[in-house]
């Protein structure tokens, strides 16, 4: 079948961004040209590749299948061109997704090191919850994700690597909640206003399961999308916040509670889709964690 390679390139950018306007911006062509290219490709393949609506663009099953083959093909071509041109500098794009907490308190140092080592690689960081990150990886919208584990959206077709072990801790401003001198039972915690992440998070799933294991029902006072904001509210005495231990700083006015029933530990993991070939840039980023 005689199909212009440029059509596949346009398809790749629309499929990875799920946006005709964003694809046109990255390709430096008009949005109408992008739309026409996709229509031409769909006609030549005799299959619809996208589901279009006024609010969003989604890949059809045929589009998802095509992306699995187009993505590694284009990456190989880019790498071949670099080799033939004698340019030994790593180029391309690294697409990574992580929550704001993981980005700020764990990932940013690695991103800085990678950028300093490979300045010609374009780094695209997508911010989402750990559940949202797993969904982005499933759809091929990220090469790699760093997320919390356990994660209900992580399927068996994901390759994972443990990057860090951590524990979740309840912290309080003891000027308002004098609970730091004795071990606190989970049952006692329910007498205080609990500040925690929203229900659409791995942390919320994990905490509710931990309390359920002790036949307790967790009813938080406040549920937010930001761990940093939870800490801010705890500092002014609005409640007791639950956050990852790696967020805590020395000389903070917040004190971790000593729990009589310690919460199970969790992990930060690096995940990739085992049916999608990662770019050379993504491979180099993975190599940064080989010593962990």
Automatic annotation (TrEMBL):
Query: Pfam families, from UniProt?
Result: HTH_1, LysR_substrate
What Gene3D superfamilies does the annotation carry?
A: 3.40.190.290, Winged helix-like DNA-binding domain superfamily/Winged helix DNA-binding domain
Lineage, top-rank taxon, reads Bacteria
Boundaries of each HTH lysR-type domain copy? 3-60
Which Gene Ontology molecular function entries are recorded, alphabetically? DNA-binding transcription factor activity; transcription cis-regulatory region binding
> Which keywords does UniProt give here?
DNA-binding, Transcription, Transcription regulation
The record's InterPro entries line, in alphabetical order, gives: LysR_HTH_N, LysR_subst-bd, WH-like_DNA-bd_sf, WH_DNA-bd_sf
UniProt similarity note = Belongs to the LysR transcriptional regulatory family.
State the protein's name. Answer: LysR family transcriptional regulator
Tell me which species this is from.
Answer: Blautia luti DSM 14534 = JCM 17040
């Amino acid at each position: 079948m005689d199909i212009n390679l440029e059509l596949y390139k346009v398809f790749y950018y629309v499929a990875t961004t799920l946006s005709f306007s964003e694809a046109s911006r990255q390709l430096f062509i008009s949005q109408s040209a992008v739309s026409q290219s996709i229509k031409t490709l769909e006609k030549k393949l005799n299959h619809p590749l996208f589901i279009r609506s006024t609010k969003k663009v989604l890949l059809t099953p045929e589009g998802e299948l095509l992306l699995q083959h187009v993505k590694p093909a284009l990456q190989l071509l880019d790498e071949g061109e670099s080799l033939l041109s004698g340019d030994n500098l790593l180029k391309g794009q690294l697409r990574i997704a992580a929550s704001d907490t993981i980005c700020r308190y764990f990932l940013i140092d690695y991103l800085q090191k990678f950028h300093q080592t490979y300045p010609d690689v374009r780094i695209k960081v997508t911010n989402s919850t750990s559940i949202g990150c797993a969904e982005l990886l499933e759809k091929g919208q990220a090469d790699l994700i760093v997320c919390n584990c356990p994660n209900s959206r992580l399927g068996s077709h994901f390759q994972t690597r443990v990057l860090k072990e951590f524990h979740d801790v309840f912290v309080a401003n003891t000027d308002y909640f004098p609970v730091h001198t004795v071990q606190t039972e989970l049952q006692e915690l329910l007498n205080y206003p609990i500040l925690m992440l929203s229900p659409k998070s791995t942390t919320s799933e994990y905490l509710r399961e931990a309390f359920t294991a002790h036949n307790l029902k967790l009813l938080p006072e406040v549920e937010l999308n930001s761990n940093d904001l939870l800490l801010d509210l705890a500092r002014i005495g609005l409640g007791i916040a639950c956050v990852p231990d790696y967020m805590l700083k020395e000389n903070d006015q917040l004190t971790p509670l000593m729990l009589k029933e310690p919460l199970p530990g969790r992990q930060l993991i690096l995940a990739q889709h085992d049916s999608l070939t990662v770019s050379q840039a993504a491979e180099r980023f993975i190599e940064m964690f080989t010593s962990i």
